[in-house]
Amino acid sequence: MINFLKKTDLKINNLIRQEFERHNEGLNLIASDNYTSLAVRSAVGSILSARYAEGYPEKRYYSGQQFIDQIEKIAIARAKKVFSANFANVQPHSGSQANQAVYFALLKPGDTVLSMKIDQGGHLSHGSPVNFSGSLYNFIFYGVDKKTEQIDFNEVRKIAKSKKPKLIIAGASSYSRQIDFSKFGKIAKETGSYLMADIAHIAGLVAADLHPHPFPYCDVVTMTTHKTLRGSRGGLILSKDKEIAEKIDKAIFPGLQGGPLQNEIAGKAVALKEAQQKKFVDYQKQVIKNAKVLADVFVENGFDLVSGGTDNHLILINLTKLGLSGKKVQEALELANLYVNRNMIPYDTRSKWETSGVRIGTPCVTTKGLKEKEMKQVASFVIRIIKNINNKEIRRKVKEEVIKLSKKFPIL
Ligand SMILES: *Cc1c(COP(=O)(O)O)cnc(C)c1O
Prior knowledge:
Elements (H helix, E strand, L loop, with lengths): L1 H7 L1 H15 L2 E2 L9 H7 L10 E2 L2 E2 L5 H18 L3 E3 L5 H12 L5 E5 L15 H5 L1 E5 L10 H11 L3 E4 L10 H11 L2 E5 L4 H5 L12 E5 L10 E5 L2 H15 L5 H13 L3 H23 L3 E2 L8 E5 L7 H9 L3 E2 L1 E3 L13 E5 L1 H6 L3 H16 L4 H16 L5
Parallel strand pairs: 1-13, 5-6, 5-7, 7-8, 8-9
Antiparallel strand pairs: 2-3, 4-10, 9-10, 11-12, 12-15, 14-15
Helix pairs in contact: 1-2, 3-11, 4-11, 5-10, 7-8, 12-15, 15-16
Bound molecules: pyridoxal-5'-phosphate (PLP).
The site of pyridoxal-5'-phosphate (PLP) has 15 residues, from helix 5.
């Protein structure tokens, strides 16, 4: 494919090649990224992007959909199987659109929604004032306990009981602990609220049964398909009952989207097949093991981790004690080809531009093939940079070692 591109557009071809090399000379520790298989990439780059297929299988507006229909039906069947769901919509273009569709299906503007504080782990589309969600709906928030830095269910229950939200959201973008959907389910039942799980980050872990499943406790589940699930870029919505599923289908099309991205849907189908293989479960186990190794080495070296550790694919380092901002650390690590993102920590005193934390995730490096032994090295790279934040010589040395390690585990 790249050869055709080279002939037509050398500039873009070269930039893609450089991006590819950047991955082979560095370590991507951004918790929301991942590398798909070549099989997924083949589906995404296929002829399927030629077609408009507005509607749903067997209910399309244009003719010539017999194969596209089959692909979408397979994607739906696999999604239902992998996540033990009764209904699935595989058309959302992204995780945010999936959430938007759920709100559009179940809420009226101004309705109250209870979600996790954005600066304590939640996502932009869970009611941030700069997001459509925060401006259309009345979002209220729960947070984590100041001591344990884990979800405070007493607070969730207290707020839910007094405000009676129409919808409660369980799910986060930077939370390193398991989310107890059964506890959320109990609260939602007590208050007569809909319960949505947004498993964007942990979908792969759930698919591998390494994180509790959101069903039967939730009414709806949204996710991205490109994070731990390791599929093509996009979103997915699952629902428990028919009435909600029908509302969701209508909200996606014609409510919010036009033609679905059939090539991405084929990529989702392929990823969902891969997700049923033993290799995938082994991969997800390694993702968690690798995150635990990072956590252990950081703690041994006196670093503070939010909630003290991890149950999943990510850790959050609290830099307060070191007097460093997340921004400063992110930038220093980038100069050594180590990629992380600055992230707010619970009760952060710095702004979202500076932050007092960095988020470090293992999905990409685990796909690359790194295991416990290499993760110890990775942790020591990060620690050396942070402890010698302005030392150019150490940074240069670490960068050399990063390149050497990364090259031993080329991406495809
Ligand atoms: C990543 C993420 C999303 C949004 O996904 P996009 O595909 O970037 O729109 C939604 N919710 C959570 C919890 C996420 O982590």
